[in-house]
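Honest question from a wet-lab person: if I give you the sequences of every part of a complex, can you actually get the arrangement of the whole thing, not just the pieces? Trying it with mine:
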Amino acid sequence: MRCDFADSLLQGYFDGELSSRRAAEFERHLRHCDHCATELVDLDLLRDRLQLAHIYESATASLRRKISATLYATAPATAASRPLLWHWLATVAALLFVALLLGKVGPRVDSDDYQAELAGEIVDAHVRSLQPGHMNGIASDDARIVQGWLDEKATFAVPVRDFAKGGFNLKGGRVDVIEGHVVAVLVYERNGHPINVFIWPTRERDSPTRIGSRQSFQWLDWRKDQMEFCAVSDADRVDLEQLHQLIDSFA
Amino acid sequence: MSGLELEDRTRFEQLVLPHVDAAFNLARWLLRRRTDAEDVAQEALLRACRFFRGFHGGDARAWLLQIVRNTCYSWLEKNRPLELSTEFDEELHLQTRATPETLAIAGDDHKRLTLALETLSPRLREIVVLRELEGCSYKEIAAIMSIPIGTVMSSLSRARRQLYSALTNSSQGVCP
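Yes, you can. This is the full assembly:
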């Protein structure tokens, strides 16, 4: 069986990218996980091979000359082209600003932004799941089958229920990785709109729902009994709220 | 230089031109052909020069590489759309290009690694190049590829696993 840690914490540890707290947590895990220890050795071997084989390809002298020639072949800025150029750059700057606001560019460290970043990852995962050919899960409307599959893949218990009577048809389940943690995903359908419900264990206290939208998708997040839920969809926000009530009444 | 004032021109030479190697290396691995990579790297540098007034300091290499990758993907979309559309089916990708046989007869490790890396989908190949060849941090990779840091980690995991298995499959066919 593959180790959940191996999926991405291991990468962060190997690359020296984990916080000291996460690194210590991983080292404790490493003491009794042969799988991760072996993976680390393999990663090391792979890096050595890549370094020793010298596959980095530098620009040739002729390319450098061509670049210089292109750059210095000055197109004189005429009175007419300048305002146009400025107009264009202003548009680019405005777009960049919007991208920054949407959280697509640049690092964020504030804890206030944490939720936005998390929601961003979850919406990205939702978008990935809509792409053709994306299937690393189980497609079934039988809650018991989905439950059985998730019990094998996830390290925590996931409450699986079909809410067809309430208008939310269970379509299946899968696992995904958010922020380096394995999360379970339940897929529902509401009037033709797919809804992904991301579920993972948390140590935080219960919280009321938080809602937001990103890239035209709505997300709704809540915590209950040390589990965090985040539902994402292009369905109506009222629908997500309703699904939340249904899940809460059974979880 | 394409409308840049002398002061900007000096800044461009100091900040951006030292990363021409990085620009070419990324283009070479994304496009897999040196001649195409030369054309696209040249085009990307020209774009960088045009955009330069919008660059207000920070990591010039990451800024340039972001332009390089965008130029590469636009080029691929226009010239080799199939490479991008088959990307979701990575398993298929792996089977149809380098087989263990072609890898095994590739001889030295330079060739073997090159072939193995080229079996990866463009996005997975790109992340290996940025991390292992260019030595970028996760934060830089996230900025260059416009993806969250968590996705950097999970993609690196997938990319390394695929690369490792492409290499181990190939070594079964050759004498040590």
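Two things worth pointing out. Chain B touches chain A through 53 residues (CB under 8 Å). The radius of gyration of chain B is 18 Å.
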